[in-house]
Amino acid sequence: MSANIIKIMQEEDDSERQNQPEARSENTENSPENGTVSNENNESTNDNSGNSESTNDNSGNNDSMNDSLDNSESMNGNLENDESMNDSSDNSESMNGNSESAETYFGTLQVNVTTAGYLKPIEGATVQIVFTGDPAEPPQTTLTDESGQTPMITLVTPPLSYSMTPREYQPYSLYTIRVSAPGYIPIEISGIEIFPGQTAIQNVSMDDEGATSEDFETIVLPANTLYASYPPKIPEDEIKTVSETGEIVLSRVVIPEYIIVHDGPPSDRNANNYYVRYTDYIKNVASSEIYATWPDATLRANILAIQSFTLNRVYTEWYRNQGFDFTITSSTAYDHKWNYGQTIYQSISQIVDELFTNFLSRPNVRQPILTQYCDGRQVTCDGWMSQWGSKYLGDRGYSAIEILRYYYGSDIYINTAEEVSGVPASWPRVTLTVGSSGSKVRQIQEELNAISRSYPAIPRVTADGIYGSQTQNAVRKFQSIFGLPVTGDIDYSTWYKISAIYVATTRIAELR
To answer: Alpha-carbon distance 482 to 460, whole Å?
Structure first.
């Protein structure tokens, strides 16, 4: 049987690049990218009035995002003298291999190996890691544990400064992994980007259907959109005209369990469609389009923009109303850059788990705002968020909502969807911890016991509705396996992650 080759090219199809409109220009004399923001043009960011009520609408877990702008001193200063915002030659000594590059920087990689659909861990899979910059270097080899995970693997990276300003130096090191397990088709994934100080998670889904010794799957990951060249976004109206038809209930915003990603431009009828969990899609796009090393507030602002854009596509049924059978595309000219097999960064993953029900709204507008953006260097875009500009604002201490209002206006606010699809029950709006009791605790105990059938490292608990040390230990192990902060408490993120994994593992059990 011929090898099953899956290649994701670094460049979009040439046909997609043709007839693209020129990128819209912005006033670079007064912008974060240029290192200056005057008070006159920062009026929208300093707006404290009129929107506090709507900003906290449906807040749930939103308090930290819709933070008050009363203490916005950092937004009133001239950014002219901030070294972090001026990528000039004055600061180029460390870039050119002197003091900084003499140091050694490291990132970490963990590989998670499961059966197709990421539903059951594969214990004892062999994972080889090869540094792409030196293929002759002997590979590191390790095995997966009963949860299908390798240990954290420490890998050499470029200096942190390479990802702090745009430059010609590649800000990450590249690695290739080869994964094999008896009875499964081996997989090679190349182009895994490792950043200094960041934990990269590489999920590997192995197929055992009809596997033979000749089968081999190859995935080639493209470069981050900030480093490589991709088609610029075609401008669209941020608010769409919608009809009252279709499968999505237009009276409210619902977080979908899955979306269908068309891996190419809309016109490419031969491109594959992939069913992707909504949260996995957001993590994939954010990991493909921004650097995980950026400030927390910058990551949050960009993730919120990605989520709002995506939910606008869902809410308006944008492509379905044009006769297509997918939700969104992987083309940067139309939507976001999504990559099959993309490496996910833990810092990004944890933020998405916290914010995934949020989107951006304007007063008296029902649908999520189609928040468009550009990188701010290769492409500039007046009236949209600049990714590099948002990084510089994050350096200055701007919060996520302050960054978003700087670009999209003072009336934009963070909203929360009323419903999450595909989960047994909504979060009880209170963190469950030792001493908690009741039906919600019992529900979680039962779900953890069901998950432990696939992930035996999670200890089984007595489903008595009492949150004791036994339940706390099971929650800690679950959080450790699935990349959540290990607290032993069931907060918002942990509740929905347990629900999602429970649904996935019980579905596969029902199919057997």
So the answer is: 17
Task: Please give the structure tokens belonging to residue 72.
Answer: 């916005």
Q: How far apart are CA 317 and CA 78, in angstroms?
A: 43
HEC readout, 329-361: ECCCCCCCCCCCCCCEEHHHHHHHHHHCCEEEE
CA-wise closest residue to 128 among 175, 182, 59, 61:
175
Which two structure tokens, joined as six digits, stand for 432?
A: 């469950």
Q: What is the mean predicted confidence (pLDDT) over 170-198?
A: 96
Model pTM score = 0.82
Helix (H, G, I), strand (E, B) or coil at 399: coil
Q: Please name the residue that has the structure tokens 């499964």.
A: 184
Question: Reduced to 3 states, what is the DSSP secondary structure of residue 121?
Answer: strand
The answer to whether 326 and 273 have CB atoms below 8 angstroms apart is yes
Nearest to 495 by CA among 357, 397, 382, 402: 357
At residue 452's C-alpha, the angle toward residues 446 and 456, to 5°, is 155
Strand partners, 385: 373
Phi, psi of 210 (to 5 degrees): 65, 25
Q: What is the pLDDT of residues 85-100, one digit of tens each?
A: 444 333 433 434 445 5
Would the CA dihedral through 95, 171, 333, 357 be positive or negative? negative
User: What is the C-alpha to C-alpha distance for residues 377 and 364, in angstroms, rounded to an integer?
Assistant: 34
Whole-angstrom Cα distance, residue 299 to residue 404?
Answer: 11
Contact present, 125 and 115 (Cβ < 8 Å)? no
User: Which token pair is 301?
Assistant: 């602002």
How many whole angstroms separate alpha carbon 308 and alpha carbon 407? 15
Kindly report, residue by residue over 13-57, the tens digit of the pLDDT.
443 333 333 333 334 444 565 444 543 344 343 343 334 333 334
Token couple for 491:
């907060």
Supply 393's token pair.
């604002």
Within a 10 A sphere around the Cβ of 168, how many other Cβ atoms? 7
Helices (H) and strands (E) in the chain, counts: 10, 19
